[in-house]
Amino acid sequence: xxxxxxxxxxxxxxxxxxxxxxxxxxxxxxxxxxxxxxxxxxxxxxxxxxxxxxxxxxxxxxxxxxxxxxxxxxxxxxxxxxxxxxxxxxxxxxxxxxxxxxxxxxxxxxxxxxxxxxxxxxxxxxxxxxxxxxxxxxxxxxxxxxxxxxxxxxxxxxxxxxxxxxxxxxxxxxxxxxxxxxxxxxxxxxxxxxxxxxxxxxxxxxxxxxxxxxxxxxxxxxxxxxxxxxxxxxxxxxxxxxxxxxxxxxxxxxxxxxxxxxxxxxxxxxxxxxxxxxxxxxxxxxxxxxxxxxxxxxxxxxxxxxxxxxxxxxxxxxxxxxxxxxxxxxxxxxxxxxxxxxxxxxxxxxxxxxxxxxxxxxxxxxxxxxxxxxxxxxxxxxxxxxxxxxxxxxxxxxxxxxxxxxxxxxxxxxx
Length: 415
Prior knowledge:
By secondary structure, the protein is mainly β. It has helices at residues 376-379, 381-387, 402-414; strands spanning 2-5, 13-16, 45-50, 58-63, 69-74, 78-83, 89-94, 100-105, 112-116, 120-124, 130-135, 141-146, 152-157, 162-166, 171-176, 183-188, 195-199, 204-208, 213-218, 225-230, 237-242, 247-251, 256-261, 268-273, 280-285, 290-294, 322-324, 328-330, 338-343, 349-354, 359-363.
């Protein structure tokens, strides 16, 4: 499917569709080869569901920097490694004594840091040798991020503070106060000295990490913030989501929200940017759904008026934010809240971790494939079984029920 887009962050599109066949799969290009076609990268197809023998909620999913393995962190404090090609179990280890809440790799790919409910941060080498542990907070740590040069990192905690640490020494350098309730998320700008945090007080704050001063507070959300993330490629946009069932996109130059992402019927629990496509954003909901948004396609439902982007209005500063609806919906991706989403470094596989204790892998549909759009993940088990795209207990793509999947993964782990 080829599309010609109009402007970078607003409006519709004019394009055409052409018929494709399965023989064209050999000509499929990786996402980075098609920078102007983010729609072709939308991961609509279910690849695999992975489960541990001892099943616990999956709070964190994180691809290793080279993309060969997927790391998951669970409520039991365990790290599990899954093969990035076959998606089968590789190894498991007890990383923390309590639930793992966040983990992040350094930009130079030499280090991983993880944090848990006890406020402890651990340093890990690429071979998962634990070399250091520090007591950073006394309450759960909800978010962490490295500075662009990896010399420092920042934490966000339920004690309502952000803390900046020197990475090499593991020493606290400054405490950032200003939130009135639990700090639920934090991120460091990919190239600038700028922090963003989201809190249970409904506020998004931007900070100067050098002085610890709050630069400004962004309003708009009406409930607890769950994620705040800078766009990793250009760094011009900021994405936020919360329990008010919406996600917002802020333009850092205009210092205002330019897009309002609607469609979720429950709380938006997490989100992630695509590593290459700056207009592709994926969100996870408390009802187990995963939605994919294209910021340059409003995808307005029938009988709903289409809003225009502030950039195209006569008064960009005061114009209302453009409402964007999902370009694709995985309404039944999980059976419980989606806690974490992460893209493969090459941008062709999206992984999700959920409270239903399952880790799932998603990718692009191949040319000519249509059944995947009517499978159990899109329309539910009952409807898919009626249409013949899913059969309880029958082997095949998307055809195992959860008990079959669990038995399969137990066998993989035993081998």
